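Batch 3, record 17
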Amino acid sequence: MEVRLAKSAGFCFGVKRAVEQVYNQAENGKAIYTYGPIIHNEEVVKDLEQKGVSVIDDDSLSSVKEGTVIIRSHGVEKAVCDRIQEMGLECVDATCPFVKRIHRVVEKESTAGKQIIIIGSANHPEVIGIMGWSSTPAIVIETEEEAEKFTLEEEKDICVVSQTTFNYIKFNKIVEKLLKKGYNVGVVNTICNATEERQTEAREIAREADVMIVIGGKHSSNTRKLYEICAKECEHTYFIQTLADLKLELPESVGLVGITAGASTPNNIIEEVQNYVRINF
Ligand code: SF4
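Prediction for the assembled complex:
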């Protein structure tokens, strides 16, 4: 029986990099804070807590007197970075380089007088962060209807960027609508394909697999999506949080067991499941 683990299972490049930075900082013995949970995974947040890493938010930041504040991969508004530094704290910026690129584009183009449009969800932390790098108020557009209704009050060139996890097809449709309005629109495609690659690979493996295991948090929407994709292709698809949940009932003849995991699933959990399946079946 073959066990095939998806190469794209678990943390993407940006999250992996941010989590590693927190663990590295935690070794210094100084007070360490993350601005918001570093990832949406309770096990990892708990483990970090035991290593002296606390989670803070905008309100609790005011009570921090010393130490290091780490910015998570989503990034934050420029004002947050400035505030941390003004408070005399050390700021370690673990913003994903793909998100950082958007901050730089937005800062430059807004300073040059362009109207920034962000295609994404206005209440997503990454989008809130991006907005905070524009020197003039940015506009967020999430749907085609919103793009249809959009008008600019003053004559200005437009610079369009996107939330990194936005759907590419929807992005193109919104951009098309904006282009039709006759404005001078410059489009920077800032979509990151980590999520899409993870989904495509999961679909391909599930198509061939007799049993498919999807690992990730119960409340993680990207893991649920992975599960739905796999379940469509493979009748015996399991959704588990950790190895403890795995109660495999294998069909009679199993040639291939596929494994994938959501974006916030740490490597040790993936490996545990993988080793267990390899050894026991
Ligand atoms: Fe991960 Fe891509 Fe987001 Fe970076 S931009 S954190 S690589 S999903």
